[in-house]
């Protein structure tokens, strides 16, 4: 058996085409969804990511308010900019790119964002609503994983899912989404982590394995059953002298070996990654709809 590749680039492109059509319809009603972006400092990875988000906004017709601040920006100035965006009717979503430079409080900034504009889904109010099953902005990477599974025809209801990783950004929210009593949930979920005694004992029971540990080759072929669905959230830099830049990107899964046993698998890059920005766009459009009472 060789796995069917879940092409995150294609799924993301399909969703962006849907969003572009929706934005066009909103514009006919005088509604232009807007995303406010704040980048503090000059971290190359963050700069690249924010630039990609801005291009994505342009692609589907969103208004983008780009704010790039020096690394020594005082906390009070950053908070003032967030408050300005909270009060700006042209802004439906606020994105503060993390991590922030040392000396700035991420928790204080995230709490200051209006929950109605929290399109990253990180505000405690939105997290709480998600946990109890109320309508809320869902965190982008976990929601992207759900979309990849659903749009690939993978059955979630009754599935045995093992998540490797318990971060607040991926593992915990994904577990909550998958156990919800709804059409994209109803799975039985086990969350594994660094203190799990026998990881392979858990992953071998799984119909779906989601690797989000941040460590290469955490999931190997001997740890999964034939026909398993594997979602690899990890993005790791692995030294590779054959590459011009000296490294290559690898996931948390031994892709080449595991794909010979899996029924579906996501690659790295090109799997979960493209979905994260797409779900940010999705939340921004949804925020604009809500603001307009639609």
Low-confidence stretches: none
Strand content: 15-25%
Helical fraction: 25-40%
CATH level-4 homologous superfamily of the largest domain = NAD(P)-binding Rossmann-like Domain
Q: Order of strands across the widest beta sheet?
A: 1-11-8-7-5-6
The CATH topology of the largest domain corresponds to Rossmann fold
Question: What is the succession of H and E elements?
Answer: EHEHEHEHHHEHEHEEEEHEH
* CATH level-1 class of the largest domain: Alpha Beta
State the end-to-end CA separation.
Answer: 47 Å
What's the overall average pLDDT, rounded? 95
Could you explain the architecture of this structure?
The mean pLDDT is 95. The chain is built from ten helices and eleven strands. The chain is an alpha/beta fold and 294 residues long. The longest helix has 21 residues, at 8-28. The chain folds into two domains: 30-114, Leucine Dehydrogenase, chain A, domain 1 (Rossmann fold); 140-272, Rossmann fold (3-Layer(aba) Sandwich). A six-stranded parallel β-sheet has the order 1-11-8-7-5-6.
